[in-house]
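Severity: low
Component: inverse-folding endpoint
Summary: output formatting inconsistent between runs
Steps to reproduce: submit the following structure tokens with default settings.
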């Protein structure tokens, strides 16, 4: 049974005892993630489906690559088209919310839990928790750590190895320890990557006219070879 006093203090970012909250989410998600981490996930989706039931929300098109670790799961809310490479860790003592189209590289860690700086109080095993919010169209590089209370805006790239301790605004590239804005994401970026994508699409997609000509040439060659063989047989009979 949920201890409302401890739960409310936890969600409010105030000191609380993690051992008195009373939720059974920890047991559920640990059982489900162990099954998923040990599974042949590349062709058996049933363990993933059972893990997704532990989250606050999760779309059908989510991709998680084991191993993963969640403290509770019920306070994690995924947006559409979410992808996480291996070794995602989320300590969701408070809420963790993702927008749509979020890509995480390997070894991303998201922490909502914190502890008192004063050792005497810290040793009583009370803690606090602050929510983390990540917007839409965000790419987070490998080995990034996101600390409690951080909000990352929309259309953001976080460089590998960053430690995000403060909010990051929308439409920028940020990196470092502590993580800071490096530069904005501009229309020039959009145009450059659009050109590269159009070139890729042009080279990777067969041209219908060329394909048809190749097929016609192939048929004509086959017909010519057949006629040549037939002529040789006629000559032999003569």
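Observed output (run 2 of 3):
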């Amino acid at each position: 049974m949920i201890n409302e006093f401890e739960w409310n203090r936890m969600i409010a970012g105030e000191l609380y005892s993690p051992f008195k909250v009373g939720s059974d989410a920890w047991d559920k998600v640990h059982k489900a993630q162990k099954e998923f981490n040990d599974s042949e996930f590349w062709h058996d989706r049933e363990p993933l489906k059972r893990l997704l039931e532990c989250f606050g929300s999760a779309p059908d098109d989510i991709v998680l690559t084991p191993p993963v670790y969640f403290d509770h799961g019920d306070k994690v809310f995924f947006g559409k088209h979410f992808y996480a490479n291996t070794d995602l860790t989320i300590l969701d003592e408070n809420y963790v919310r993702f927008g749509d189209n979020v890509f995480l590289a390997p070894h991303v860690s998201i922490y909502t839990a914190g502890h008192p700086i004063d050792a005497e109080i810290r040793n009583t095993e009370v803690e606090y928790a602050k929510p983390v919010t990540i917007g839409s169209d965000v790419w987070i590089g490998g080995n990034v750590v996101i600390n409690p209370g951080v909000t990352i805006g929309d259309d953001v790239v976080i460089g590998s190895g960053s430690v995000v301790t403060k909010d990051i605004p929308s439409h920028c590239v940020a990196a470092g320890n502590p993580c800071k804005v490096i530069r904005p994401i501009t229309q020039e970026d959009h145009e450059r990557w659009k050109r590269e994508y159009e070139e890729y699409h042009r080279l990777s997609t067969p041209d219908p006219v060329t394909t048809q000509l190749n097929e016609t040439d192939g048929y004509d060659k086959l017909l010519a070879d057949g006629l040549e063989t037939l002529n040789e047989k006629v000559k032999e009979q003569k």
